[in-house]
Design a protein that fits this description.
Blueprint: H1 4-17, E1 23-28, H2 41-48, E2 53-59, E3 62-67, E4 77-81, E5 86-91, E6 121-127, E7 132-137, E8 143-145, E9 149-152, E10 165-168, H3 185-194, H4 199-204, H5 214-223, H6 237-256, E11 298-302, E12 305-309
Antiparallel strand pairs: 1-6, 2-3, 3-4, 4-8, 5-7, 6-7, 9-10, 11-12
The protein binds a DNA duplex (16 and 16 nucleotides) through helix 5.
Length: about 325
DNA sequence: CATAGAACCTGTATGC
DNA sequence: TGCATACAGGTTCTAT
């Protein structure tokens, strides 16, 4: 669910609310949510307890909190991926509005502190000021872990030469994202055109350029007037550039609105929804008129999901012969 | 190596 | 009402 603008909204919230705090207790309610932590839930908790949260960093849809140097620990971080339905909620030592938290009316506040416990709470970190950081995740595709930080080689993911960087090990293969100033956009265009696939698949490939998901891919393609099934190999460089510009633009606008959310499944650290859903031109708009030409937006099956396009603004490519 | 599809899990909406 | 099916913002693993 959360794509770059939503994850960045969460990162910003964490930067403002939990940095400088120390983890005093870790409560793993569901082991599956820390399955990517190889050493298991107990080690996950042990590695976090007593550590201070120093910085909030993001690449694409991954975000992590740098940890201070623990006794005998190397460089590591609390890594989070929200998957399709993950949330990170900062719960202060006060009662949170039940509606904004996505909790039904009448939910029972839990614990002496008095905040409302979300039904899909998977992991809770209790912080030294009495607040808590809750990882909530309905579908459980998201996960938390405490991996080591590694230095990525020059010119790594996506074939984009750029400055060396330190990222958590599971992020080493993820390319820089479209809001990263160090991203080499020309290299992305070049790499995209060497792929033998369709342009929407390339846009969603996080090892080529990261941060774009199904919503913003469709929105970017509509803005660039390209059909997602266009073969990348036959794409003009100017078209590829226009597509990347469109994706950057739509994600920047979404970020300004606090991200896109259709329901309580996506919220910021305070439980509030973003407003960009009102600005979507095609995603989820099937049967409604294209705001540019009036033609009805259509939905097509795409990789166990859907793609939304304007058939007139985004003509399908001519079928190629093999 | 590159690419496409299945698998992972929980819940809601829709149709019969 | 009950039940079956389709679908949902993503990534990793596996098979070609």
């Amino acid at each position: 669910m959360p794509e770059l603008p939503e994850v960045e909204t969460v990162r910003d919230g964490l930067a403002r609310h939990v940095l400088g705090r120390t983890v005093v207790d870790v409560d793993v309610r569901r082991d599956y949510s820390v399955r990517r932590h190889e050493a298991g839930p107990l080690d996950f908790a042990a590695r976090l307890t007593g550590r201070r949260l120093e910085a909030a960093v993001r690449r694409g849809k991954f975000l992590w909190l740098l940890l201070d140097e623990g006794a005998g620990r190397g460089d590591d971080a609390l890594l989070a991926h929200l998957g399709m339905s993950g949330q990170l909620l900062v719960r202060g030592a006060h009662v949170v509005d039940a509606r904004a938290s996505g909790v039904t009316e009448g939910a029972v506040p839990s614990g002496p502190v008095g905040w409302v416990e979300h039904p899909h709470l998977r992991v809770r970190l209790v912080l030294d000021d009495g607040s808590a950081l809750d990882f909530v995740d309905q579908r459980t595709f998201g996960h938390l872990s405490v991996p080591d930080l590694v230095t990525t080689p020059d010119g790594a993911p996506g074939g984009c030469g750029a400055a060396r960087d330190v990222v958590p090990l599971p992020v080493a293969h993820i390319a820089r994202d479209l809001l990263d100033p160090a991203l080499d956009r020309r290299a992305v265009v070049a790499a995209m055109r060497t792929r033998r696939t369709e342009v929407k698949r390339a846009l969603l490939d996080q090892t080529l350029v990261s941060g774009v998901g199904n919503i913003y891919a469709d929105e970017a393609l509509w803005r660039a007037r390209l059909h997602g099934t266009r073969p990348t190999a036959a794409l003009r460089a100017t078209d590829a550039e226009r597509l990347l510009d469109a994706a950057t633009e739509v994600m920047t606008e979404a970020l300004e609105q606090g991200g896109t959310s259709f329901d309580a499944l996506y919220v910021d650290v305070n439980g509030a929804s973003g407003y960009f859903d009102r600005s979507l031109a095609v995603y989820g708009q099937d049967g409604r008129p294209c705001r540019r030409c009036g033609t009805l937006v259509r939905r097509d099956a795409f990789a166990n999901r859907s793609s939304y396009t304007c058939p007139r603004c985004q003509p399908r490519p001519r079928p190629r012969r093999a």
